[in-house]
């Protein structure tokens, strides 16, 4: 510590600032505290950090609380591709998961946590109130077999708790899926776990976090669809109302984003491709049954 010079500190700050301004600020705080403590306990006479500042930022920083994402602009589906995906997924166990993702913008863990009791069958809305995952500070042995990663936990942010409209297409599918649920419950009276999950096995058990992966990748490959991530379906969903000039704040609420800028920055790179690929996205509203809905 005694061999550290002011030049060493400045070089460290410059390197970290080139990588990330926020990281550099954290490093500066840590270095200040550490060397001042060393001075206090008389390890060194003076702190080499005193008077050393971060280099000036070349670009203005965003306000605290906002964050951005770097998205590959090619990772999105066109309207025609969405329709193919929806139709072909009917023959797979992930049809409901696909709809909740690309037609309602739910996150993967939120989808697995949706229950029939969350559905308002009169107003056709869905309350997003939980997700399935691991409980912090617990171990596998604390839970029943195959349930460690399927525990009901809180949502990602406060904004994630939301009530969103259910498109007619999805609402009809929920009603059909409920009939299947009741049939399985009556048929398997002893083995069935009546947990109320919409996306569940024939025994009523919650789906695992990665259950959709094999079926989803197979759907893309067999139907000539782009090999995009599951999460890219959610991002594709939010581009559609924004192209039709829906209020960005309303779209942000539907997505459960904490800050409006997240939604805008997530989709801005994708709009150009959607403009050229889709002649009229407004037809999508007809498919969803919410063309005239107010967000």
In brief, what are we looking at here?
The chain contains 12 helices and 5 strands. With 295 residues, it is mainly α.
What's the arrangement of secondary structure elements?
Elements: H1 6-19, H2 21-40, H3 79-88, H4 95-102, H5 108-113, E1 119-120, E2 125-128, E3 131-133, E4 151-153, E5 162-165, H6 168-187, H7 212-222, H8 231-243, H9 248-255, H10 260-267, H11 271-277, H12 282-288
Antiparallel strand pairs: 1-2, 2-5, 3-4
Provide structural commentary:
This protein is mainly α and 295 residues long. It folds into two domains: 1-61, no CATH class; 79-171 and 205-288, hpI Integrase, Chain A, CATH 1.10.443.10. Helix content is 45%, strand content 5%. The protein is built from twelve helices and five strands. The strands form two sheets. It has a three-stranded antiparallel β-sheet with strand order 1-2-5, with no helix packed on it. A two-stranded antiparallel ribbon has the order 3-4. Strand 1 (119-120) and strand 2 (125-128) form a beta hairpin. Helix 9 packs across helix 10. The longest helix has 20 residues, at 21-40. The termini are far apart.
User: CATH homologous superfamily of the largest domain - what is it?
Assistant: Intergrase catalytic core
How far apart the termini lie comes to: 59 Å
Assembly context of the chains? single chain
The average pLDDT value, as a whole number, equals 83
The helical percent reads: 40-55%
Task: Based on the coordinates given, report the CATH architecture of the largest domain.
Answer: Orthogonal Bundle
Spatial strand sequence of the major β-sheet: 1-2-5
**H/E series, N to C?**
HHHHHEEEEEHHHHHHH
State the shape: elongated
Structural class of the helices, strands and pairings?
mainly alpha
Q: How would a crystallographer describe the biggest sheet? A: 3 strands, antiparallel
The first-level CATH class name of the largest domain = Mainly Alpha
Radius of gyration: 25 Å
Number of strands: 5
**pLDDT < 50 stretches:** 68-73, 271-287, 290-295
Number of domains: 2
Helical segment count: 12
């Amino acid at each position: 510590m005694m061999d550290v010079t002011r030049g060493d500190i400045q070089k460290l700050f410059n390197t970290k600032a080139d990588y990330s301004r926020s990281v550099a600020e954290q490093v500066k705080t840590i270095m200040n505290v550490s060397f001042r403590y060393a001075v206090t306990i008389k390890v060194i006479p003076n702190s080499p950090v005193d008077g050393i500042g971060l280099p000036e930022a070349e670009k203005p920083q965003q306000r605290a609380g906002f964050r951005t994402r770097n998205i590959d602009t090619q990772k999105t589906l066109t309207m025609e591709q969405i329709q193919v995906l929806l139709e072909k997924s009917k023959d797979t166990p992930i049809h409901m998961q696909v709809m909740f993702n690309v037609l309602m913008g739910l996150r993967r863990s939120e989808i697995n946590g949706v229950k029939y009791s969350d559905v308002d069958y009169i107003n056709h809305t869905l309350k997003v109130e939980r997700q399935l995952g691991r409980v912090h500070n617990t171990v596998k042995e604390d839970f029943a077999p195959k349930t460690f990663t399927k525990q009901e936990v809180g949502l990602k942010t406060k904004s994630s708790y939301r009530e969103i409209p259910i498109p007619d297409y999805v609402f009809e599918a929920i009603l059909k899926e409920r009939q299947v649920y009741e049939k399985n419950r009556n048929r398997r009276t002893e083995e069935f776990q009546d947990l109320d999950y919409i996306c569940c096995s024939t025994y009523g058990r919650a789906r695992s976090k990665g259950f959709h992966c094999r079926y989803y990748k197979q759907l893309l490959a067999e139907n000539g669809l782009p090999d995009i991530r599951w999460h890219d379906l959610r991002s594709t969903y939010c581009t559609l109302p924004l192209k039709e000039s829906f209020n960005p704040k309303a779209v942000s609420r539907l997505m459960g984003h904490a800050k409006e800028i997240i939604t805008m920055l997530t989709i801005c790179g994708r709009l150009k491709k959607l403009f050229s690929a889709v002649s009229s996205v407004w037809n999508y509203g007809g498919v969803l049954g919410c063309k005239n809905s107010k967000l």
